[in-house]
Amino acid sequence: MKKLLVACLLCASVIGLAFGQAKAASKTTVIVASSVDANPQNYTNVFYNKFIELAQQYSDNAFDFQFFPSMQLGDEQETVRGIQLGTIHIANLATNNYAPFAPSCGWVNMPYMFDSLEEFRALVDAMWDQNNEWAIKEGGCRLLCILDIGYRQLTTSAKHPVRKLSDAKGIKIRTPQNALMVST
Length: 184
What we know:
The protein has helices at residues 2-19, 43-58, 76-85, 95-98, 117-126, 128-139, 179-183; strands at residues 28-34, 63-68, 90-92. By secondary structure, the chain is mainly alpha-helical.
């Protein structure tokens, strides 16, 4: 929870810098989209609500946040298109769904690249500016933060456990439409 709060504070301060000191009388509208189909207690919705609360606090209520949870504005690919068009201002996207728009940012999805979450976080921090440069140049979006929520895993039934690569032969595996993940 402490890390979530730090991420929220970081995002709130970035919002303040990005939009400047708007007067309360002329609030800046900020469209926030959640492309996760989730209940109100889901971490994504909890994050957004805290983010909005802190952004309002640190901006002296300079914004009119309009939050659209549970994919009301479309799936993640549609959300990226909305950000590119300027109809959506903030969204929480899976990096694997942003990679088709900014392929250079797909490095975070490389399988078996990291031995630990700490190693992943250190590399994200070290490459922050470069990653944002790619995100803006290739995909037209700026990254405010990267939340790590765990790694992908292969889940099968007890009837067909996968304990080694050969056990996966013949199984159809659903993946995001991300070339790196599909090829893996």
